[in-house]
Amino acid sequence: MLIIFLVWFKALGLFLVDAGQPKQLGCYKDFPSRKLSGHYFRDANLTTSKCFNACRKKHFTYAAITCVNMLECYCGNNPRLLKELTAFKECDTKCKDGNKACGGNYRNSVYLLNDDCYQGEVRNLFHEYVYLGCYKDSIDARKLKGYNYTDSNLLPETCIRACQKHEYLFAGLQDKKYCFCGNSQPLLRDKIPDKNCNLTCKGHFNEHKCGGRLLNTIYAVGKCKNSNEDKGF
């Protein structure tokens, strides 16, 4: 019975490497829509370490390698990609470092880069968030450097949902019209009293306001115990 289980386990590609190293989670389907959409690049000379380093640099939790005409690296925080497990043999493309686990045609070889970080699946409910406070920002060095948009009718719930949709861990509202998303934890040295983020959104939800001039009202829309940057809280 044990032998049968181990054979099945191996066939699905559920191999775990040493703690502290990326964990190979298996081979997963990636069609018709991309399962990781945080960061992406193509590289004919892609290696697993190059993909891992790129995703870690941008503070993402998962890395996926696939091959559709050319080797591609995808990064993200959302584990919804883990729903469509398939046979490991479908991810038999070789990377340039000789690693065979580099995906296939619309098949992702998925790796967990940091098992201390968790990002819940995209929620439709607004209550999946934690208010962190009011933080200083800078035009020359934005604190949340990911997806952003401007909306004169900005609502906290729409900003939070947008950041969750784009697989970021933090959402910030500024000057009652700007929404910023990012993966870097807010720094304690940038935190100021909540009363400074006193601009009211035009929407109906005004519990924590919508920031101020170069001030972000920040929410955690995911959870990360450790970060490669300074701890903010």
Could you list some keywords that capture this structure?
disordered N terminus; 6-stranded antiparallel β-sheet; 233 residues; disordered C terminus; 3 helices; alpha+beta; 14 strands
Any overview of this molecule?
- By secondary structure, the chain is α+β, with helices and mostly antiparallel strands.
- It has helices spanning 2-11, 48-57, 156-165, and strands at 23-29, 39-42, 62-68, 70-76, 85-86, 107-112, 117-118, 130-136, 148-150, 170-174, 178-182, 191-192, 215-220, 223-224.
- The chain has a 6-stranded antiparallel β-sheet. Strands 9-11-10-13-8-12 form a 6-stranded antiparallel β-sheet, with helices on one face.
- A hairpin with a 1-residue loop joins strand 3 and strand 4 (70-76).
- The relative contact order is 0.16.
